[in-house]
Amino acid sequence: MNNRRGGILLAVSSLPGSFGIGDLGKHAYEWIDKLSSTHASLWQILPLNPLGYGNSPYQSYSAFAGDEIYISVEKLYQALGLSVPSFDVKTGHVDYDAVRIKKDVFLKEAYAHFVPDENYEKFVKETAWLHDYAVFMSLRTINGFVSWTQWTRLIPDEDIVNYHKFLQYIFMEQWLELKAYANAKDVLIMGDIPIYLGHDSADVYFNRDLFFLDEDGTSTLVAGVPPDYFSDEGQLWGNPIYAWERMAKDNYRYWVDRLSWNQTMFDIIRIDHFRAFDTYWVVDGKSTTAKDGEWRIGPRNQFFDSMYAQIPDLKIVVEDLGDLRPEVLELRDDYKLKGMQIIQYSIKKEEIERDKTMPQNLLIYTGTHDNQPIGGWVQDNTWKRRMEVRRDIGKCGIKDFNFIDRVCHYTLSLNADYAILPMQDILRLGNAARMNAPGTVGSPNWEWKVVDFDDEFNKRLLKFKIMMEQTNRN
C-alpha cells in the first residue's frame, strides 16, 4: 500500500439507520464494505462523545464517553437474546429528540435484562474515567438537566450510575468490534477531538482546578477567536480556558489520559484548532462578544514533548486553518504533523498554480463539516466564476464534465499524502446537505444523513473508486 491514501468524511450519525440515525449496527458494516470496495483506506468521522447543546459533537458532556444514541439496539437485543425491534425509518435528517426518546425505551429494557459478566466487571474496573462520568450523568438527571453550577442534589442515584456504566460498556463493545472489522478491511478510522471542552461536562466538573473558574464554578475566562474578515464581533465559543501552567505540574496527565483513550478508539486522531497550543484567544467570562479578548501563549513544545514521551506511538493530524502566525506552523513542523488544506478556499488561478508544488505531508479536503458542499459553492457563485475554475482545473489534466466531480478529482490528484472528500461532495449535493454552519446553533446543523444505500449512492461511489484508481490512491 502506498502513502497516497484517500478516504471519505461521513459522520456515524449520517449513515442510514433503522431508528432514523446512523449507528454501530448493520449499516455501519455495510458502509465499511462499500468504502473498502473503492480501495479507500480512510474513514473520517466526527466526535462520538455525548452530544451537547444544539446536538453539537463539539460541546460534549465528556471527552471520553460515547453517546448511547449510536448504540445499535438490534445488535444489543440479539446479544441478550431478546426479540429484536423492527423499525425502518428512512429519512434524510436526524430528529435527535425523537430518536433519543425512542432508543432510551429499548436501552432501559435491555439494561433490565443485562447480567454483568467478567468482561463487564473488567471494563468497569479498568476504565478510569467511567465512574466519574456515570456519577456526573446521574447528578445531571436528578437535578433536572440544569448546569452543574445550579445543582442542589449532590448524592448520585446508584441505579442511574450503573445504567450509564452499562451504556458505556455496550457502546465500547460495539465500537471496538466495528473498528476491528474496518481494520480487517484495510480501512483506518480517523477520529476527531475538539481542543476545548464544554463547561457542562464531567471533565470540567471533576477537574475544576485545571480551568479558570470562580468559587461557584462559573468560567472567569472563556475561549473564542478574534474579529476577522468574516465577523466584526469574532466568535465567542464560551468554553472554559485550560490552566496550562497547572496542567504542566503533573506532565499534562489529563491530556495524556484523553489522547491515550482516543488512541484506543481510533487509528488516527484529528485535533481541532491546533493553533491554541501555540497561542489562544482569551475572553472575559462576562463578555458578550469575543472582540475584547487577548492572545496568550500556549504550552507549545513542552506539551508535545510530554505527549510523545508518554505516548510514543501517538498518531495525530492537526487542523491548522486560518490566519496563523509563523510559530504555529513551526510547532506543527517540529513534530512532522500533517496539517490541513481546504481546496474550496483555493480554487482560484494563483492557488491552483501553487497546488502543483503542494507538500506531501498534508491532509487535503474539498471541504470539511464546517464548509458548504461543493454543490453549495456552485449555487452561490456565478456562471463566469465556475467556468474560470473549470478551465483552470482542466489545465491540470482533470477533464470530468460535472463541475463537482472535477473539483473532487482535482483534490484527489494533488501531491498531499492524504485526501478526504465529504460524502456530500461525492453525492453531488448542495447547501441543503451542509453539516454545520459555524456561528449558528441548532437545526439543521448536524442533521444531514444518507437515506439509504440505493442505486444512486452506489453509482456515485463507483465514480469515486474510478477517481481513486486514476490518482493512484488507496
TrEMBL record:
- One GO process term, biological-process aspect: carbohydrate metabolic process
What's the source species for this entry?
A: Erysipelothrix larvae
Entry keywords, A to Z = Carbohydrate metabolism, Glycosyltransferase, Transferase
The reactions it catalyses are: Transfers a segment of a (1->4)-alpha-D-glucan to a new position in an acceptor, which may be glucose or a (1->4)-alpha-D-glucan
Its protein name is 4-alpha-glucanotransferase
Q: Does Transferase appear among the keywords?
A: yes
Q: Name one Pfam family in it.
A: Glyco_hydro_77
Q: Name one GO molecular function term.
A: 4-alpha-glucanotransferase activity
Read off the NCBIfam families from this record: malQ (TIGR00217), PRK14508.1-3 (NF011080)
